[in-house]
What does this fold into?
Amino acid sequence: MINIKSIQKDCLDGRLGVMEAVEQINQAIGGITRVDFKEGHKFKITNHVAVFPLGVSGYRRREEELLHGLAVAAYYKAQQNGSVFPGEVHISAQASTKHHRQGIQEIYQRYR
It folds into this structure.
């Protein structure tokens, strides 16, 4: 069974970098095709056949920052994998793939 929650935990605990965690998730599920993230409500990563839910609440500030980085980096990985509909990431009024891409790009640049 694929357990990407353990990869998420390793990232949030600082044992894995954000980009390394996304790459491990990508390999574990056979390619990220979609990411849906809404602050405090949902975080789902999808491959071509299954949806993998991840935790979104109860984290400290530093862990939340890493969680945001994980969501954004996974979104860009879905794009790199050729996904036509890579999903949506809504972190705040200043960072959203739908209306506020500059904030999303700033988060992504922190972890590249």
